Amino acid sequence: MTAKKPTAETRSFQAEVSKLLKIVANALYSEREVFLRELISNAADACDKLRFLALSAPDLSAGDPAFSIRLSVDKEARTLTIADNGVGMSEADLHDNLGTIARSGTAAFVEELSGDSKKDVGLIGQFGVGFYSAFMVADKVEVLTRRAGEAQAHLWTSDGLGEYTVAPAEKASRGTVITLYLKEDAGEFLERSRLQQIVRTYSDHIPFPVVFAEGEADGETLNKASALWTRSKSDVSDDDYREFYHHVGHAADEPWLTVHWKAEGRIEYHALLFVPSQRPFDLFHPERRHHVKLYVKRVFITDDAEGLVPSWLRFVKGVIDCEDLPLNISREMLQKNPVVASVSQAVTKRILGELKKKAEGDAETYATFWNNFGAVLKEGLYGDGLEHREALLSLVRFRSSTQDGLTSLADYVARMKDGQEAIFYIAAESEEAAAASPQLEGFRKKGVEVLYLTDPIDEFWVPMLFEGFEGKPLKSITRGGADLKSIADAETPADGDKEGKDDAAADQGAVAALVASVKLALGDAVKDVRTTDRLADSPVCLVADEGDMDMNLERMLRQHKQLDQAAKRVLELNPDHPLIRTLADRVKGGASGPTVDDAAHLLLDQARILEGEPVPDAKAFTRRLSAVMTKAM
C-alpha cells in the first residue's frame, strides 16, 4: 500500500497574533530596523540549543559543526534572507512557535496594547514575539526549516493577514532559512552597508559569526562574534551592554542596572547580569523562575538551571559562564552540584551589594526599582534567603503614615518616639486602605509612624522575623495589645485639655458598665469587648486578638477560599468619643434591654463597615438604624 503523500495545511493565526500583526504590518515605526536584531537573536538561540544538544548527541551537528548566521539579498526579487545552521524546527514547532504568541504571554500582551502603534510595536521584544517584527518590512515571509536529526523539512508561509500555510519541503541540511519579501518602502534593507550598520549596532555581541554572503562565497563577518561577557569591561560600550540585554532578555526596555565581573580563585566564572527598568509581564507567573542563562566554557547549557539564581531574584536577566563545570552536565546534576551552589551564593551576594549601592546612592532611582520588584525581593525574607536576611532587610522599603516617599527600616528606627519599643505596621490591600483604617487614629494623634504593608507576601515574611530588626519587634496595629500609654504625646496638652481628661477619667466606671452591657448583648458574635487608646476620631474598631491571625491575612485567605470561617474579633470602644460617652451615661442612668442591644449591634456593624466588610444581616441593620433615627428625630 502506498503511503499517503503529506500535503500543505493552512491555519488561521491565534486571535492575539492577528491583533499583533495588524499593528506591526501597518505601523510607521521609526526604528523598524530592529526586525533584523530579533531574527538574528532567534537564529543565535537556535545555534545555542543545538550546540548544547550535540554534547550528548554529537550526530546532530555532524558534518557542519561550525555554527553561523548568514545574510543574503536578491535585489531583483527584493528578498532578504537570514539563514542559520542551528537546531531547526519540526512541523509541530512551526505551529507552536509561529502560529501562537510564545508561552503564557498572549493575554498579557493584548492587555498591554495601548492603541498607539509605535508604543505597541515596542512591546514585541518584551513579550517574546520578535519574529513577527518581520512583517514591519515584509509583505510575505517564508520559513524553510529542518530540525536536526529529522529528514523531513517544512515550509511556513504567510502574508501576515490572518492565515499561514505549512507544507512539506526539501532542504539538504538542518537549520532555518527565513526569506523576507520586502515592502516597496523597505529597499534600504537590500543594501549591504545598511545591513552591516544594523548588525554592528544591535548584534555585535552575538557569539556566532553573522556573515554577509554573496553567492557561494564565504562572505564577510559583520560582527565581532565573541562572547561579550568574556571581554574586559573597558572594551564594552554602554550600547554593547544595552543590545546584549535586549538579546539575552528578549526585552525592549533599557537595563536599570548592569553588573559585569569575572570571578577568579577557587571557582572561576564570568557574569553579565541585568536588572530591567520595567516589570516583565510574567513576573508572578508560576512557571517563571529566572532568565539567567548558564554557559560552560562559552557553550550554552541551559536557561533553566534550578538553584543558579534564587527565585526571589527572578527578575534578573543575563549570563553566567562557569569554567569549573563539565560540558556534559545534566539538569539533574546541576541541582546537586556544589559548584553551582557556590556560584549562586556569590552571585546573589554581588547583586544584593549592587542594589545596596543604588539604594544608598540614589534613593529616587531606587524607588523605581522597588515599585517594580520590591514584592519579589521580599520573598527572600520568607523563603530560602536566611543567609541573606540582613542584606535584604537593608533593601526593603515601605510607605508609611508620616513620610511622603519610601522609607527603610533603619530610618524608621531612627525616628522612633521616646518610649516606643516596637516597629508598628498595618497590613492592607492598598496604601489608601491602610491610611483610612481607624486603627491608625491613635498612632497618628501621638505622631507614631506606622508602616504600610500592602503586598501579599508581607503577611508571611514578617512573622519570620522572630528577632525583629535591630532588636525592635514588628507589631501589627490591627492586633490586640497595642499599648500607646508609654509613648510620649506628639504635643503636651494644654491645661484645658488636662481638665477634660480628668472629666473623662471620672467616667471610667460608666464606660466599664457600657463595655459589660455590650459584651452581654453581642454574646458569641465577638471574642471580647474592651476600651482602647488606638482610636481618636472613630467610636469603635475591630482587631484580632493577640494570638490570632492578622485580619488582612484572614481576608486574603477567605477571598481565595482557603479559609471557611473567620475567627471572632475583638470589638474595641473609644472611651473619649462622644457617642461612647453618651451611651455610657445612658447605661449608667439605667438604660437596658432593646436600647442597649440595638446600640451594641449597630456599633459592631459600624466597625465591620469601617473594615470594608459586609454587614451579615442587612435587614436587622436597617431595622435598628431606622429605630435609632426615629428616636433621635
CATH architecture of the largest domain: 2-Layer Sandwich
**Total tally of structural domains:** 4
Q: What does the average pLDDT come to?
A: 86
* Main beta-sheet annotation: 9 strands, mixed
The shape is elongated
Distance between the termini: 97 Å
Structural class of the helix and strand makeup?
alpha+beta
**CATH homology-level superfamily of the largest domain:** Histidine kinase-like ATPase, C-terminal domain
Spatial order of the strands forming the largest sheet = 1-6-5-4-7-3-2-8-9
Total helix count? 23
Could you explain how this protein is built, in words?
Helix 10 packs antiparallel against helix 11 (363-377), helix 19 packs across helix 22 and helix 22 (594-610) crosses helix 23. It contains 23 helices and 21 strands. Helices cover 38% and strands 17% of the residues. By secondary structure, the chain is an alpha+beta fold. The termini are far apart. The protein folds into four domains: 9-226, Histidine kinase-like ATPase, C-terminal domain (Heat Shock Protein 90, 2-Layer Sandwich), CATH 3.30.565; 230-369, 2-Layer Sandwich (Ribosomal Protein S5, domain 2), CATH 3.30.230.80; 398-492, Rossmann fold, CATH 3.40.50; 504-632, Four Helix Bundle (Hemerythrin (Met), subunit A), CATH 1.20.120. Strand 12 and strand 13 (299-302) form a beta hairpin. The strands form four sheets. The chain has a nine-stranded mixed beta sheet, with helices on one face. Strands 10-11-14-12-13 form a five-stranded mixed beta sheet, with helices on both faces. It has a four-stranded mixed beta sheet with strand order 15-17-16-18. The model is unreliable at 102-107 and 492-496 (pLDDT under 50). The longest helix has 24 residues, at 338-361. It is elongated and about 105 Å long.
